Amino acid sequence: MTDPTEHIISGDFEISDWSPEPYLVPGSSSELSRVRATKVFSGDLAGTSSAELLMAGNDYGAGYVASEVFTGSVDGRVGTMIVQHWGIAEGTAAASSGHIIPGSGTEGLVGISGKAVYTQDPAGQHHLELKVTFGA
């Protein structure tokens, strides 16, 4: 079913697995790693995800890029989708956002597109907000 209206859907998530693998690049001044992460989501966004991240960090800042396959329910629609996202931190300031890969939705998520914003509150709770449309 096509729905051109933008929906804001959110959920909390816990990281249930975090498996880093450090790697070296000659001349780099940052710690580099590949990370496999698994998340469990609850709320209007419910399910699990598996993500592959490339990370870099040093005493001044850090950053990452990731591809994440989500399997579950988005506002009652069940299927899978891929979110590609990035984040950067400098001191205590941090930003993380991304996009749903066009055409990556399956089953009830066919045609989903939109943006993703990842946040963490002061208590450490992770949160994902999606601004999506459900196209054909």
3D architecture notes:
- With 136 residues, the protein is mainly beta.
- 0% of the residues lie in helices and 74% in strands.
- It is built from no helices and eight strands.
- It has strands spanning 3-23, 31-43, 45-57, 61-74, 77-90, 93-100, 112-120, 126-134.
- The protein has an eight-stranded antiparallel β-barrel.
- Strand 4 (61-74) and strand 5 (77-90) form a beta hairpin.
How would you describe this structure in keywords?
136 residues; 8-stranded antiparallel β-barrel
* Alpha carbon gap, first and last residue: 7 Å
Tally of strands = 8
Average pLDDT level: 94
Strand order of the largest sheet: 1-2-3-4-5-6-7-8
Low-confidence stretches: none
Q: Report on the biggest sheet.
A: 8 strands, antiparallel, barrel
Order of helices and strands: EEEEEEEE
Radius of gyration, in Å, reads: 16 Å
Total count of helical runs of at least 4 residues: 0
Portion of residues in beta strands equals: over 45%
Residue share in helix: under 10%
Anisotropy-based shape: elongated
Q: Can you give me a brief rundown of this structure?
A:
This protein is an all-beta fold and 136 residues long. Helices cover 0% and strands 74% of the residues.
What is the topology?
Layout: E1 3-23, E2 31-43, E3 45-57, E4 61-74, E5 77-90, E6 93-100, E7 112-120, E8 126-134
Antiparallel strand pairs: 1-2, 1-8, 2-3, 3-4, 4-5, 5-6, 6-7, 7-8
